[in-house]
Amino acid sequence: MAETLFDKLWRRHRIADAGDGADLVAIDRVLLHERTGGVALKSLAEAGRSVLDPRRVFCVMDHIVSFRAGRGRDEARSPGGEAFITETRRMAGEAGVDLIDTDDPRQGIVHVIAPELGLALPGLSLICPDSHTCSLGALGALAWGVGSSEAEHAMATGALRVAKPSQMRVRVDGRLGPGVTAKDLALHLIAAYGAAGGSGMAVEFAGTAIDALPLEGRLTLCNLAVEFAAFTALIAPDQTLIEGLRGKPFAPGESHWQAARTDWAELCTDPGAAFDREIQIEAGDVAPMVSWGTSPEHAVRVDGRAGEDAKALAYMGLAPGACLADLAIEGAFIGSCTNGRLSDLRAAAEVLRGRGRVAPGVRAVCVPGSKAVRAAAEAEGLDRIFTQAGFEWGEPGCAMCFYAGGETFPPGARVVSSTNRNFEGRQGPGVRTHLASPATVAASALAGRITDPRLIAAGARAA
Amino acid sequence: MTRAPFRQHEGVAAPLLIDNVDTDQIIPSREMKAVSRDGLADGLFAGWRYTAPGGREPRADFVLNRPEYAGASILLAGENFGCGSSREHAVWALAEFGVRVIIAEGFGDIFAKNCVRNGVLPIAASEDAVSGLASWVGPDPQTRLPHVDLKTQCVTYDQSAFAFEIDAYSKRLLLNGLDPIGLTLEQRPEIDAFLDADAERRPWLYAD
Ligand code: SF4
Q1: Banded model confidence at residue B34, pLDDT cuts 50, 70, 90
Q2: Is 70 exceeded by the pLDDT of residue A460?
């Protein structure tokens, strides 16, 4: 019978019937971070249980670590945050799992380093107590976010009890226009079908526009699946993607490479396989997007207008139907697991290069998603483009993607951000987040107001 | 960890009829102060419940601060409640505050699972059912207590009642206060057999 990619991944990991309509599903790797993973390790230890296979559990510091350049080993970005770093370090040491500590050259945001290190691979099942674990479906992995108790469960048993979710396919055909990115596509989808549009479903992205997306764009698109309320997202891996994984530290070594690659080539949806729901999007209809409200579904084309939701408008300080282009901003942030990879930094730097400094009164911050991204960006001289334009250049981590106490933009500040959540208070009390692509953030930072990056790209450079 | 079984519940119901209430609102990240499941109730809905960020002066108009909803143990909510961050702290905070049942038009997927793991019953109901219940409760929340029966999957109030769906696994966990890890460990032979076969198929995954 014709199977979807998701059916294949599920079948390969299904150990047994778990009763009550659920399956017992094998979990190949567990990823943890200090914000929610430390507590999972702790409660596992308190229950007197141990990690079944510590070689398949990885723990990284990313959420609470300081993003100040030259940060100390235990330095947190929020008051009291050090405890999360030191406690998690201790728990990870006791459990014997691979700890990627603050000063480890592999450090970065968990969803950014997982593909870099080959922790996420096609055909693997992965969980992490973090909702954006769905990003890793971009490699053709079965990856989803769970709570801390489920992470504990998977570490103790190597498996989880899960009911197989229903499935959706989102086909995107045609070509994304110049200056239009995977971020814009994701916001376009969520705005059109709602923040609950993919509720509980495994969402496969397919179509010619998806085929044309490099891995980093696919990661961005799948990252936002949870803002669509999906169980997870996934994309069939192609040959280019698979070859790009060769030699990564946690990918199959040379002696196993051919077998793995042959195996992974089967990871695609068979012709005629059935989905519970299908959505079709024309790539050419997508424009640079920006959010206006407090849910990712509150997003429109950058030349569009705010909607009607009174509570959201009040928080955002906007009138119903307000024009978004030309709204003055006080902050700009580039980074996060959504848009903190090298191609994101390149896209933003391309807008900034030779166009002077960010507008007066705008605090602009760029934090690469990982140390590897930071090093690669510095090797290309991107750091100088950012700093010369007036951006702060931070140490890798989640940084200003979410507020945990400590320093951030001031209350009421309007911030254009390459992150994934524009919830009330997400970036700080009263901070008004407008989600957008890195190019849109860069263009807006230069202009001091929300700006279509295509307008800037058409303009001349100063030097 | 086993917990008290959930069979039925009757209590004060508080309406928070907003869509897409995310877990950042339920427990702001700044309120997660220790590597712990405890001590979170104080930070529940902190951004809406208190007058200033980080402060503890109650905002009089927030539903859980209003005297008529004192002791609320049932929360009525809109669509996609608990969306966003996977933080289980949201449920730990709700449970510690005393919430046992959440009746919403829909839930964030991870949040609903986290509820069940922590003995909180998430009930998905239609918009009409939620608003009907809220308007019945409205005139006197302290005496108009909805009754929730998990076994019969039914919410009753006044002369009305509505049935709700819940998957069989969640129902069994809640009804019996079961520890899911314990359940899975009972299937250890099947897991071991799977792992042995898998180590043949993907030896690289099991290498040191
Ligand atoms: S960058 Fe933001 S969304 Fe991504 S894992 Fe970190 S806090 Fe979560």
Answers
A1: confident
A2: no
Q: How would you classify the pairing of strands B160-163 and B154-157?
A: antiparallel
Q: Where are the alpha helices (DSSP H) in B27-161?
A: 46-49, 89-97, 109-117, 127-137
User: Position of tokens 């905070």?
Assistant: B93
How far, in Å, CA of A108 to CA of A397, rounded? 5
Helix A342-352 vs helix A371-379: crossing angle, to nearest 10: 40
Q: How far is CA A278 from CA A169, A304, A364, A450, in A?
A: 5, 27, 40, 33
The secondary structure of residue A389, as a DSSP letter, is T
Phi, psi (degrees; rounded to nearest 5) at A155: -70, -40
Contacts for A102 with CB less than 8 Å, ≥ 6 apart = A61, A65, A71, A73, A74, A75, A85
Q: How many CA atoms lie within 13 A of A413 on its CB side?
A: 22
Measured at the CA of A140, the angle between CA A135 and CA A146, to 5 degrees, comes to 45
The reply to whether A48 touches chain B by the CB within 8 Å rule is no
pTM for this prediction = 0.95
At A237-246, the pLDDT tens digits run 999 999 999 9
Judged by DSSP in three states, B59 sits in: coil
Q: Give the nearest partner residue to B113 out of A16, A28, A147, using CB atoms.
A: A147
Calpha distance A223→A251 (Å, rounded): 22
Q: Does A148 touch chain B (CB under 8 A)?
A: yes
Residue A240 token pair: 């280019």
In tens, the pLDDT along B104-139 reads: 999 999 999 999 999 999 999 999 999 999 999 999
Put simply, whether B117 touches A (Cβ < 8 Å) is yes
A420 lines ligand 1 (CB under 6 A): yes
The residue type found at A142 is L
* 3-state SS, residue B33: coil
Q: H or E stretch including A334?
A: strand A331-334
- Radius of gyration for chain B, computed over Cα atoms and rounded to the nearest angstrom: 19
User: Is B120:B11 a contact under the CB 8 Å cutoff?
Assistant: no
Q: How far apart are CA A88 and CA A148, in angstroms?
A: 13
DSSP A357: -
Q: Which residue has the tokens 């309509």?
A: A21
The Cα–Cα gap between A53 and B64 comes to 44
List of residues 6+ apart from A334 with CB closer than 8 A = A340, A344, A345, A348, A364, A365, A366, A367, A391, A418, A438, A441, A442
For residue A409, which of A391, A389, A430 has the smallest C-alpha distance?
Answer: A430
* Contact check, Cβ <8 Å, B191/A15: yes
Report the 3 state secondary structure along A99-124.
EECCCCCCCECHHHHHHHHCCCCCCC
Element of type H or E holding A94:
helix A82-95
Q: What is the ipTM score, two decimals?
A: 0.91
- Identify which of B126, B115, B109, B112 has the alpha carbon closest to the alpha carbon of residue B164: B126
